[in-house]
Amino acid sequence: MRRGDFSEWAVFIAVAEEGSFTRAAAKLGLSQSALSYAVRMLEQRIGVRLISRTTRSLSLTEAGERLLISLRPAFDHIDSEIAALTALRDKPAGTIRITTFRHAAQTVLWPVLSKLLQNYPDITVEVHVDEGLTDIVAERFDAGIRMGEQVQKDMVAVRISPDVRMAVVGSPAYFANRPARRHPAT
DNA sequence: GGAACACACGGCGACTACAG
DNA sequence: CTGTAGTCGCCGTGTGTTCC
């Protein structure tokens, strides 16, 4: 997956939430044509129509609705974590190690990391993709994404999607210095 | 005179071509 | 990949016509 993909997901969310390319463009500080191009490229690459357009209005397709429901909490969660990091440090920097499975990496993690890395270039993120059950604590990962049934008892889990059973999990050590969350912040 | 309908037109928003 | 300019087409509104 190319790095440029990240912004396309953010564009999709903005358009979906605003219900208008023009308003989304104003919100993101881009031109309307840039957003149209980004969404078109995104749809072409994944081969799924996400937004139904007419000359005067737009609406989300079923696939678009599902994608928005899945992505929005993840973006919100990353935003809240960034805010928490900012509160702890004047200038966030360092390495975050995350383990996840391929589907979550493609649909959830990459889009939010795009925003994170743009805003905090001093942060390095190590993403380990594997379909097995990597031990987050033993392998010294800071966080991971697991299906609900894969969340172990000693993990601190935050659900990130209402319709997909995915959750962000972190080692107790990671959350020891941070406030525990039951839900992603909005 | 007032209500209902049909039509024309301008505004607005999305798309596309093209240049940088 | 982004911005500009031009094009297309839907929608809202104003105006004219018809009917009661």
Q: Would you kindly provide a written description of the structure presented here, covering whatever features stand out?
A:
- The chain has 186 residues and is of the alpha/beta class.
- The protein folds into two domains: 5-60, Winged helix-like DNA-binding domain superfamily/Winged helix DNA-binding domain (Arc Repressor Mutant, subunit A); 70-176, Periplasmic binding protein-like II (D-Maltodextrin-Binding Protein, domain 2, 3-Layer(aba) Sandwich), CATH 3.40.190.
- Helices cover 47% and strands 18% of the residues.
- The strands form two sheets. Strands 4-3-5-7-6 form a five-stranded mixed sheet.
- Strand 3, helix 5 and strand 4 form a beta-alpha-beta unit.
- The longest helix is centred in the middle third of the chain and has 27 residues, at 62-88.
- The radius of gyration is 17 Å and the shape is globular.
- The two termini are 27 Å apart.
- It binds a DNA duplex (20 and 20 nucleotides) through residues 4, 20-22, 30-34, 36-38, 40-41, 53-58.
- Belongs to the LysR transcriptional regulatory family.
- Residues 1-61 form the HTH lysR-type domain.
